[in-house]
Amino acid sequence: MKRKNVTHEALRRAAMRSTRASAALENRSVPLDAVRSERVERFLAVRKQHA
Length: 51
What we know:
Layout: H1 8-25, H2 38-50
C-alpha cells in the first residue's frame, strides 16, 4: 500500500467522526455545540506534551 501524507485537519475530522460513531453505538450523543471546559483543555494540553 502506498504511503499518504495526512494533514492535521484530516486527523482531527477523523477523530471527531470516530467519537460521534462511538457515542451513537452506546446510545449517547455529542452535541454539535459542545464546548470543552478549561480543566479538560488543560488536561489534554498536558497529554499532548507527553505524546
